[in-house]
## 1
Amino acid sequence: MKILIYSLACIFSFSIWAQRDEDVIELNETNLETGLIVDELSNNEIQDVLYIHAMSYYVNGINFAKSHGISPEEYGTFLGNQFLPFWDKDIDFVSFTSKMIHILKGIHYNSDIKIVSNGDKKVFIMISNVDALFKNGLFYDISYEEFLQCSNSLFQKISDHVGVSCSQNITTGNYYQLIFTQKK
């Protein structure tokens, strides 16, 4: 924990240092003549940058945990515990699954989410492109399997908190399947 706090303090300090007035370059016609340009990004490019940043932080968290002898499952449980205060224990099943689908849609902007079955007490969804960053192997020294182990523990912790069971599976064609079942 001390290392994490120290790391965050260093990043914060660097960001303040980087914003000093003498380091700020004002864009004007003179700077444009020297070739300094700020490109406009399309919505897809913006989403891609945000996606890579978010996934990099998540996956590097797994990597950091592993470097301290903490398994991806244990780290997922830790993350789930951190998120519990933001989940109402008394949330109804439909609201919970709707929120989870909304969150999962953010996995990748090209993700296709299919609601395979939707009942009063059970929802079965399939999501594409969950493995997008792992298509060529490890991402920041983390495997897709380790990513799924962490995610499964995270989802199970939150689901259990609200009285729902959660299971995951990977299908042929690499669809990520999640099944939420109300326990009550």
Note: The chain is about 50% helix and 15% strand.
## 2
Amino acid sequence: MAACGVLVPKEKATGQRAAIVMAGVVNAFMHSLPFRVDVGVVEGQQVYRNGKADANGLLKVAAVSGAALGGIMFRATKVKFPLPREWKGGAPKGAHQARVLDDVGWEYEFDGPKRPPKIVRVPDGVDVVGPDPGVHWKEIVDAIGLALWGYGK
């Protein structure tokens, strides 16, 4: 059985509090699983010298990533913590997500490499569990891509 997902805390926290809240959410989720996880993958963060991202914002995301990593450590047989370029290369987000959707056979509409693909239909037998997928499709597709990368697709 393969599963991947996006955890969204009920509490809307920011800064260091967000890392603490996410650590609790991941810990509770991992304790709720009735099985051991073969491979746990959490995306690491990196500030790129000529990148457009706000470095302080990335530090906050990195703290949350570290909290998530800590939450899966006790329950996963193998843990991976790749930087974005390690698992998706240098492709624009939309282009990479289109490749992920091709890999899993999902139907989507593509409006260029810099825009996320629009999911047209989720295949029969696939359950999307968790937060409203309409709001979190970008994160869900990234989670699928990370899982595929983690298993060595």
Note: Strands lie at 37-41, 76-80, 107-109, 118-121.
